[in-house]
Every structure is written in C-alpha cells, then in structure tokens.
Amino acid sequence: MIERAKENWRRFRESEQGHRFQDRYRRHQENRRGRFDARTFLSIGGGTLVVVGGLIAVPGSGPSWVITFLGLGLIAGEFRPVARFMDRAEVKLRALTRWFVGLWTSSSTAVKVLTCLAILLCLAALGYAAYYLCFVSSNG
C-alpha cells in the first residue's frame, strides 16, 4: 500500500503543471473501470469532510486553506470539473507565489522589517481580540 502511494505521488509530481489533477483523474477512472468501490466512497466522503473542516477553520489561525485544497485534491480524483479547477488553481497560485517571492527578494531590508512588524502587529491585534471576546466580554 505504501509503495502504491509512493508510485501515485511520483506520477503526480512528474505530471505537467496545469494537468496534474486531470491526469490523476484519468488514471483513477481507468483503474476503477466504472465500478463504485470503498475507495471511491472514501475519496468523496473523506475529501468532503476535509474541505468542510478546512472551511470551518478559515477564520482561525493555521493552514486552513491548505487543508481545504488537500480535500479538493481527494475529490478531484472522482470529478473532472474539480480536477480542472485544481489544475487552474495550481497554475495561478504558482504564478502568484513567483511574483511574491520576486517582490520579497527585490525589497530592501527596511521594507522586509516593516512588513514583518506589521504582520506581528496584526497577529497581536487578533490575539487581543480573541482574548477579549472569549474572556472579557463573557464576564460582563
């Protein structure tokens, strides 16, 4: 089972960007040969639960969007429209990441320090708001 997972990951990684999820969908459908089995149910059901859990966690801190996209990745093996969406999202997220990394590397040290301080200030404000909502306002 672990060897099969490694092989699936290798194939996924070697697929061309923008076609990975559709290739995975195609391979999954060929292996399934039209029958509905427990793996199909687990992919759809488990993927849906992971997506819902990720979306519920969005307001909190942590990698909720990553969790949501992992759940969509599970579902993409069963539904071509989801696979197409994931391929488009991958291409756009990679472009956005390249742009952001380029912007960050070309920025001066002062801009980087100010950016980090602004992020820390926002996190502190969120932490204080959570503390206030959970502990202070409930006592009043």
Describe this structure in words.
It is built from six helices and no strands. It folds into two domains: 2-105, no CATH class; 107-140. With 140 residues, the chain is an all-alpha fold. The chain has helices at residues 2-14, 20-32, 38-56, 64-76, 80-106, 109-139. The model has no long low-confidence stretch (mean pLDDT 87).
Q: Please give the oligomerization state of what you see.
A: single chain
Give the distance, in angstroms, between the N- and C-terminal Cα atoms: 56 Å
Number of domains: 2
- What integer value in Å does the Rg equal? 20 Å
Strand content: under 5%
What would you call the shape? flat
Helical content stands at over 70%
Number of helices: 6
Spans of at least 5 consecutive residues with low confidence: none
Main sheet: strands, sense, barrel: none
Order of helices and strands: HHHHHH
Average pLDDT number? 87
Secondary-structure content class: mainly alpha
In total, how many beta strands?
Answer: 0
